[in-house]
Design a protein that fits this description.
The complex is a heterodimer of chains A (about 130) and B (about 130).
Chain A: H1 6-11, H2 21-46, H3 52-60, H4 62-90, H5 94-123
Helix pairs in contact in A: 2-4, 4-5
Chain B: H1 22-53, H2 55-66, H3 68-95, H4 102-129
Helix pairs in contact in B: 1-2, 1-3, 2-3, 3-4
Classes of the chains: A mainly alpha (about 130), B mainly alpha (about 130).
Chain lengths: ~130, ~130
């Protein structure tokens, strides 16, 4: 006789606690990143020596600002998932692994939010 | 588990005993470029942040980005981005169950290297030609 609750049976995740989200989100963001990365490269390379007014002018275009918002969200999500796999592959002691996974989440979030804040501030005219 | 004493256990053959092969190096480079891009994105965001911060801070960061070293870093960032993206395309193809035969795997590995170097050079030539 199974001791599992009906909910746990329906979820079907067992002791792993999560299913295919990691795999799927990695692919989802990978596909999104294809056009976004082309935009990112264009943006970076065309603004290497630009002055601040030029940057502000570029970001005052809502399309450019929005593309940067999309890029930052998709890329930081993708890189958090990727780094998580790297950490899980190479760091075996539970304590260090936990700290690295926490650090990974904080780092990715910090990059994402700093980027989004900067883009929106410049785009809104600040 | 965490408290049990570590015993010397036999390990399965690992990296060091294999002859380096192109496909294996591509896999390793895919991961290394991913790690590089992880930190590269922080630099990108630092640059955006400086523009949002103040004129003097932006001048400082743009001075770094515009220097020969900054441009070298950005060139490396561009190549890593292109290489990782092309490698990612191969992975998306493999996810559909296609492209696993040895001939195609080898061909795609070579195409990825050639493609990433060519595209990176073209991007930079185009960027300099446009100014």
């Amino acid at each position: 006789m199974s001791m599992r609750t009906p909910l746990s049976k329906v979820r079907g995740l067992g002791s792993a606690k999560s299913g295919t989200e990691h795999f799927w989100h990695q692919r989802l963001t990978a596909v999104a990143n294809i056009p976004l990365v082309i935009f990112l490269i264009w943006f970076c390379v065309s603004k290497v020596g630009a002055d601040r007014a030029e940057m502000a002018a570029a970001l005052s275009n809502p399309l450019v600002a929005l593309m940067l918002v999309f890029t930052i969200i998709s890329v930081t999500w993708h890189m958090r998932l990727g780094m998580q796999v790297v950490i899980e592959d190479y760091i075996h002691s539970e304590g260090s692994k936990l700290i690295c996974l926490l650090g990974n989440t904080f780092f990715s979030l910090a990059v994402a939010l700093t980027g989004l804040f900067a883009v929106l501030k410049i785009s809104f005219g600040g | 588990m965490a408290n049990s004493p570590m015993k010397e256990r036999p390990l399965s053959p690992h990296l060091s005993i294999y002859k380096p092969m192109l496909t294996m190096m591509m896999s390793i480079v895919h991961r290394i470029t991913g790690i590089g891009l992880y930190f590269g994105m922080a630099l990108f965001v630092w640059w955006l942040f400086s523009a949002a911060h103040s004129q003097s801070y932006f001048d400082f960061v743009q001075g770094f980005v515009g220097s020969w070293f900054g441009r070298l870093v950005l060139f490396g960032f561009t190549w890593a981005l292109v290489h990782h993206a092309l490698g990612g395309l191969r992975h998306l193809l493999w996810d559909t169950g296609r492209g696993f035969d040895l001939v195609r795997i080898e061909w795609m590995a070579r195409a990825t290297i050639a493609g990433s170097v060519t595209l990176t050079l073209l991007i930079w030539i185009a960027a300099y030609a446009a100014r």
